[in-house]
Input
Amino acid sequence: MKIGIIALCAAAAAAAWADAPAASATESPAATNVVRRRGSMVRATGGWITRTTEGSHILLADARADASDIETVRREMEDMCRIPVRVGKAKTGGASPYRDAVSLVSKDAGLVLFAYDGAADAPALTVYPENRVALVNVTPLMAGADRAKGLGRVERELWRALVYVGGGLLSTMPSVMRPVFSPKDLDGIECRMANPMETGMINTCAGAMGLARIQRTTYRNACRQGWAPAPTNEYQRVIWNDIRQIPTNPLKIEFDPAKGK
Output
C-alpha cells in the first residue's frame, strides 16, 4: 500500500487554511462560515490524505488509429469511482476486438474498457460483465459529427461501458442484478427475477425503444377512454350503459358569429 502524494498537498493546504486571513466585510456569511469550517476541520483532523490499497486497476485500452487524449475521462473516472484508472495503447487485428480486449485482463488490469475502430454498422457498445470487458466501437459514434462532438460521444460511451461492466447497474434490493463472474455465481442469487424498481425503469424506457406496453386500469376508466371491450358480466354492463348512454339534457352550445365559433 502506498501513501498518496496528495498527503503533502494536504499539509500545505492545512497550513494555508489554518493561517487564512479573516473574511472581509464584503464576503457573505455563508462564505465566512466555509472558511471557518475548513480551518476547524484541518486543525482537528490534519486534513485529507489518500492511499491506494492493493489490487488491480481499470484499464482504458485505446486501439484507435486516430487516438485522442482521454486523460480527462481517466481522471474523472478515478475521482468519481475512487479506483485507480490507467490509459494504455492497445492493438487489434480487427478480426476479434473481444479477444484482444480479454487478453488485456490480468492481475494488474482487472477491468478493461476497449476503444477501437470497428465497422460502421457494428454496435457502438458491447459489454461482457462476466469477463470484465466492454468494447466501444468509435466508428459509428464519430459518424455524422464533427471531431469535438464525436469525441464527446466517445467519452460518454466509455462512461456507459464502465457503468455496465463495473457494476453500476447492480441493485442493492433483492434482484437478479448481482455480481456474476461465472455461471456458479448465478446459483447463489436467491431472486429469480428483477425487482419492481428495475422493471419500472424498463417500462419507462420502453417508449423510447418503440416497445408496446400493457396498460392496466379499471373497466370504468377504459370505457371513459373509449377502448373497453364489450361487457362480459352484469357489473360491466351497468358501467357500459351508464357511460355510453346519451345525456337526457345535453349541453347546448350555440354558434357565435362574432367569435366565429
About this structure: The two ends are 81 Å apart (CA to CA). Residues 1-21 have pLDDT under 50 and may be disordered. The longest helix spans residues 147-165.
